[in-house]
Amino acid sequence: MALPGHVKYLIIGAGVHGLSTAYHLAQQLKAKGNGAAADILVVDKTDIAAGASGIACGVVRNNYYQPAMRELMAACVEEWESDPEAFHYHPVGYMQISPESMHGQIAEIAEQQRAIGYESEFIEGEADCTRYMRRLLGDWHAPGVTSILHEKRGGYAHNKASIQGLADKATGAGARILTGVEVKGFGFGANSKAVTSVETDQGSIGVDQVIVAVGPWAPRIWDMLDLPDRIDLKDLEGRVHRDVAMWRFWCLQEGTIAVEPSYGMADDGSMPPVIHVDSDEPLYSDVDGRLITDEMWGIYYKPDFNFGGIQGGAAPYKVHTPAADVAIDPYGPESPEFVVDESFREMWCSALAFCQSRYKGQIGRWLDEPSGGIGAFTADSFPVFDRFRENCYVIADSNHGYKMIAVGKLVADELMGRESALLEPFRFSRFAEGRLHPVSNSPFPWS
Fold first, then answer.
1. Which residues pair with 248 in a beta bridge?
2. What is the pLDDT of residue 341?
3. Which of 44, 269, 327, 328 is the most buried (most CB within 10 A)?
4. Residue 245: CB partners within 8 Å, gap ≥ 6?
5. How confident is the model at residue 34 (pLDDT cuts 50, 70, 90)?
6. SS3 for 315?
7. How far is 99 from 305, CA to CA, in rounded Å?
8. What is the DSSP letter of 402?
9. DSSP state, 246?
10. Other Cβ atoms closer than 10 A to 439
11. Gap between the Cα atoms of 193 and 186, Å rounded
12. Does the structure show a pLDDT above 90 at 129?
């Protein structure tokens, strides 16, 4: 397909957000008779699902302490449920398993999930939690658990297959996808406000609207749009913090142990929910018994036939230079992959053994392959969905991305003139206005 001279809607990024936006926008244009689906072009510098969406662990959940995130994720789960076959989605549910230090906040999540009609079960007290888990997994032996929030919806999807399903839906609705086209910059109108063209390594494309959906590369496009890399931020107590970095980079740690996925099944042979454990118990090495950490830690895991074993991850770590807020450049690789180090492998496998006895001694089955990646987080670790430069819509998911498949649908609504109440809490203006999201005491920055 040749590079067109002009398109009405140019979407940058062929991951979950770009393709979801293309699909829903094409549907709406057809339904409204307001332009043609062929007015939509998706470009990607590499390929469909070549970035963060294609290496995502695939977990779909609604375990958020922030009401706005919880309501948005309820809409996203509905979208996953709308076509599980095309999205390669497995609705096995999700468990948040927590210590007493998180009990109160998890209770709030459970109450507010009930308030929005999101089905979940809340178990309290160490004895009842142990009994609940052992009815599902007889070898469960994690101490110090005093609450379990068992979401009956949610689960996981196969990363690249689900994104290809979205791509098929988008092209089936009439949108076009061009891969191997890298964005190098933007042309602006006489008043320097609106974007008039997108400059690529293969030429210039005139545009009416631009949608940026590039995952961890959002800061690069942000710079091309000449948007601020340092901001003033008002916190929830009304204190103003000057000259705060707009972007922070965290290294996501994930991996797989190569046992048959059936090895991780529930005692009745069924697929268990995705399991997320946060703990303040000391964690000891399953290799030599030494103390790994006596601080708060967390992991998540699931049997996964796509990854070919028991797959999951742990809390990320911040990546920065000695200048503290100046992160490493994550843009060099063609995809944001990395090979996890020895310390993470030992930590994660030891944490699995902490939870279930079947995982003792399984570190030797670790798959030494690229996993995880670099995540670009905003100043408060939550997404920004907003318009800039008059006609440029930026989807900056702050690493909440893959599971948020309905964001593209809501962005398409906004492009068609219908403002979304679900996206409103994620405007850029919240930083200056003090409308930040509450933060839990989970060790994960996105919870």
1. 377
2. 62
3. 44
4. 229, 230, 325, 326, 379
5. low
6. strand
7. 30
8. T
9. S
10. 16
11. 11
12. yes
Whole-angstrom CA distances from 32 to 7, 210, 412 are 18, 20, 13
Spatial distance between the Cα atoms of 145 and 97, rounded to a whole number of angstroms: 7
Distance CA 46, CA 335 (A): 9
Residues near 332 by beta carbon (within 8 Å), at least 6 away in sequence: none
Strand 392-396 versus strand 203-212 pairing type = parallel
- Residue-by-residue DSSP string for 254-288: EEEE-S-GGGG--TTSSPPPEEEEEE-S-EE-TTT
Residue with tokens 């409308």: 435
The structural architecture, per CATH, of the domain 1-90+155-238+382-447 is 3-Layer(bba) Sandwich (3.50)
- Which amino acid type is present at position 316? P
Q: What's the pLDDT at 193?
A: 87
When pLDDT is cut at 50, 70 and 90, the band that residue 447 belongs to is: low
Q: Taking a C-beta distance cutoff of 8 angstroms, is the pair 394, 388 a contact?
A: yes
Tokens representing residue 116 in the block: 């929005």
Rounded Cα gap, residues 435 and 237, in angstroms: 10
CA dist., res. 372 & res. 399, Å (int): 11
Q: What is the distance, to the nearest Å, from the Cα of residue 328 to the centroid of all Cα atoms in its chain?
A: 20
- Report the run of H or E that residue 407 belongs to, with start and end: helix 407-415
Q: What is the pLDDT of residues 136-155, one digit of tens each?
A: 999 999 999 999 999 999 99
The single residue listed with the structure tokens 């004895």 is 127
Helix H, strand E, coil C: the string for 22-76 is HHHHHHHHHHHCCCCHHHEEEEECCCCCCCHHHHCCCEECCCCCCHHHHHHHHHH
How distant is the alpha carbon of residue 224 from its chain centre? 24
Residues 6+ apart with CB under 8 A from 438: 65, 66, 236
Helix (H, G, I), strand (E, B) or coil at 244: strand
Radius of gyration of the chain (CA): 22
Query: Is 282 within 8 Å of 293 (Cβ atoms)?
Result: yes
**Whole-number Å distance between alpha carbons of 429 and 343:** 39
State the DSSP H helix or E strand holding residue 145, giving kind and residue range, or none if neither. none
